[in-house]
Amino acid sequence: MSVKCQADTMEENLELLRVPSGKHIDLRRDYDPGCVGHFMTKREAEKATAASVRLLAEQQEKLYAQNTYALLIVLQALDAAGKDSTIKNVMSGVNPQGVQVTSFKVPSAEELDHDYLWRSCVALPRRGNIGIFNRSYYEEVLVVRVHPAFLERQQLPPVLNDRDIWGRRYKEINNFERYLADNGIIVLKFFLNVSKEEQKRRFLQRVEEPDKNWKFSAADIRERAHWEEYMDAYEEMLNNTSTPSAPWYVIPADHKWFTRFAVVSAIHQTLDRLHLAYPKATREQKEELLTAKAEMEHEGGDTGGTKKRAKRKSKKRS
Ligand code: AMP
Ligand code: MG
């Protein structure tokens, strides 16, 4: 396999960037973080992204009105890959009422007192809504795997804390996502694939530009030292959890304009397949609407009458 975004359209590129279910991928060899394809310039892509953001807003209105499906977008990446700015950009046009973003951090004491999917279940989007997980239950096979100390804190029965735990978690996650799909919750997963060099460039920017200092912490550098372990953990996760009902996309993330265009296009494409439409009123509902309209028109005449009576009263008093 080779570089994964050389097709002529974004649609075809998304096919290539989607991790095939049941086939083995090599993350480092198959997916180039710097890939931007050759089918569009940066300016063209930015224009197309803006158009797709507008279309997404229309789709979301229909999703909300229909109140049948929900969309869960899972975003995973190493630090500085652009998760936050992708959310900000891609969701910039949609009605905030229909979107919830949940950022998953190191679990709290309360969260650790539950099974590992608990906090995600609580945050699932309701029908008609788009839920975005900024990090997710996938951290349970990523950071928790790279740093076994996190697993120790999970208070698991010792017999369950064994070598097979990661294989079991992949299965549990696949079953969970199957369950969501069977309930009309569409799951779409993006791994923003940034290169180690680009991460360094962005970290340096965060150090050098005062307004970006808040984004940087010394812990980020410590995580960077585990780069290869993270790549291995990501690769195994992608190979085990990309399914037809909940596919992973490996999105090149060294160029933000390409990342955004790819993500918004994939969301747009997924919603398009749902054939969303505003609910049509039934005959009875139409009759009710007409009755309501007639009542309001009648009410309009009444208000006039009330005004006239009030005028007559005030004249008498003067
Ligand atoms: P950030 O997304 O940069 O605000 O950082 C959140 C941090 O929380 C990251 O370092 C994640 O790896 C960490 N985190 C998220 N979920 C978990 C989890 N289940 N267990 C341990 N750490 C987690
Ligand atoms: Mg961070």
Describe the 3D structure.
With 318 residues, this protein is of the alpha/beta class. It has 14 helices and 5 strands. The chain has helices at residues 10-17, 27-30, 42-66, 83-90, 109-112, 118-122, 143-146, 148-152, 165-182, 196-208, 218-224, 227-241, 256-272, 283-317; strands spanning 70-77, 99-103, 130-134, 185-193, 248-252. It starts with 9 loop residues before the first helix and ends with a helix. The site of adenosine monophosphate (AMP) has 11 residues, from helix 7.
Produce a short descriptive summary.
The protein is an alpha/beta fold.
SS strand fraction: 5-15%
Secondary structure tally, helices: 14
Q: What does the overall shape look like?
A: globular
- The chain-level structural class is alpha/beta
Oligomer: single chain
Termini separation (Å)? 93 Å
In this entry the ligands are: adenosine monophosphate, magnesium ion
Average pLDDT metric: 93
Uncertain residue ranges: none
Give helix % range: 40-55%
Note the run of SSEs as H and E: HHHEHEHHEHHHEHHHEHH
Let me know the number of strands: 5
Largest sheet: 5 strands, parallel
Radius of gyration computed on alpha carbons:
25 Å
Spatial strand order of the main sheet: 2-3-1-4-5
